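$ run holo --ligand "guanosine-5'-triphosphate" --emit tokens
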Amino acid sequence: MKIKRFTNSLLTRLVLVGIAIIVSTAIARYYFLVNFLETDQNIVAAERQGTIAGYLAQDIGYHIEERRSFLERLAAQMPPALLHDQAAAREWLRERYELQPLLAQHLFVADNTGSIVVDYPAMKNRSTLSLASDPDYKHALTGTAVIGEPLLSPASETPALTILVPVKDAGGKVTGVLGGINELNAPGFLTQLQRGRLGPSGGYQLISPARRLVITANDPLLVLTPLPAMGADPMLDRALTGFRGNGVGPNASGVDEIKGFASVPGTDWFVTASLPLASALPAVSRMRHMVTRGGLIQGAVIFLIIALAYLWFFRPLRRAADLADKMTRGEIPLSPLPVVRRDEVGYLTMAFNGLLARLKLHQSELQHQAHHDVLTGLPNRMMLAERMQQALARALFEQNGIALLFLDLDGFKPINDSLGHKAGDLVLQEVARRLRQVARHSDTLARVGGDEFVLLATDLGAPLENGARALAEKCIATVSEPLVLGQKEYQLGVSIGIAVCDGRCDADSLLQAADQAMYSAKASGRGCYVIAPAGMGCSHAIVNAPAGTGKTNRPAGSAHS
Ligand SMILES: Nc1nc2c(ncn2[C@@H]2O[C@H](COP(=O)(O)OP(=O)(O)OP(=O)(O)O)[C@@H](O)[C@H]2O)c(=O)[nH]1
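-- output --
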């Protein structure tokens, strides 16, 4: 029952609606804000990756170009005779190498047959190598510098990049090739890329598309490793076919990354700078936490405020409903509900109070109708009974008496029958008016039948019969006064039965005694009163003829004797 009341409660529904609004707006705000931030931050992070890749590619291009031009300057200075003088050539190389050891970790000279003439620093087995079938060597013999593909140096067994430049005689004819071997891990060469760090999990790679190879990377484990198979890393696949720029996509492990691609000048290589999406957008993830936490706190606060406000708004309504409920169950009397505030609840309460006032008025009208005669407005038999109870109790308490006069009109039927019911009603109303004037304020005049009235007289002093007699005479006199109906005068009479009591009798027997006495008066010739005998009601019986009527007054019990 309580649960049903709770679920049906307007308050519960309003609070639920409030919560729904809070939650939906919080979700919408969270969704739009985070989406907006994510998109924005993605663009910024992707552009940053592109910029970093571009910077690293430029740096690598610069270092390669530096080494190539160093070798070209050496080749241009090299005396042609050295190709045939190994000792002099070694000395010449040594001098140059020591001047600039960083730009090539190994130098060698090959003649135009592919045989290594000399190398510095000398390495075991290198002099036995032949470059005759090496495509880069062949290319260099055509007169242009060649930047070879990186590989594990057979001599040093470390990853290395070989740059070959042609050696020409005075006539410009290529007579040999000067080679410089650059170890990829040599200081100052690819250091920027190898030592670079981009967050805890970002990475840089120098890629050779021709060999689908990672030339070098900031992760040493990736150096000279093959690229993932086609399809595993869609963005890398695009870069291998020439795309340069930035974007977001999954890597070979399925982790979304922000990547930037940039070409290394002077080569067909490119640099990738990649960063996992999750670590690329720390602001977004912080914002996510902040918005979630803020939303929860805000929701809780708003919920509390709404709940308290609703409780406060609806408290008068619930109090009014409880009071109305108690009134309905009869636990408290019908009374106006308190109007606490002049708001909707206040107006509703005022409207209820108005309805209650109408109800009470209606109720009192019904009460009046239940206790009064509609035609004359006099109390009816029911109210007479109540008044008699009260009067008897008071008479007993105050040790005085009451008299009950039962009046039945004489000659009413002929008027009623000849002039009609409406005229009869007017006669009854007129009789009521006249009798009301005779009765005292404390007396009760009731209409108990068609032309029957009862007058309950209280506060009578002893002997009770004297007061009753005087009252009956006044009644006979006032009813007997001529009645003008239309153009004609009519005369009515009244027969009265009187029963008196000092409080020690019951209402029904008193009424019955008066009724019987009235019949005695009728039997005695009408227009007179009879006091019920002492055995009937409670007092002695006397039959009286009103003064001036000329009728005989006889005791009821012995009137006809
Ligand atoms: N107009 C009218 N007539 C009523 C009403 N109630 C009863 N009557 C009539 O009142 C008459 C009463 O009859 P009776 O008591 O015999 O009339 P009566 O001529 O006084 O005769 P007695 O009482 O025997 O002296 C009847 O004709 C009823 O129809 C009423 O409310 N209005």
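-- notes --
Residues 375, 408-413, 416, 421, 424-425, 428, 450-451 surround guanosine-5'-triphosphate (CB under 6 Å).
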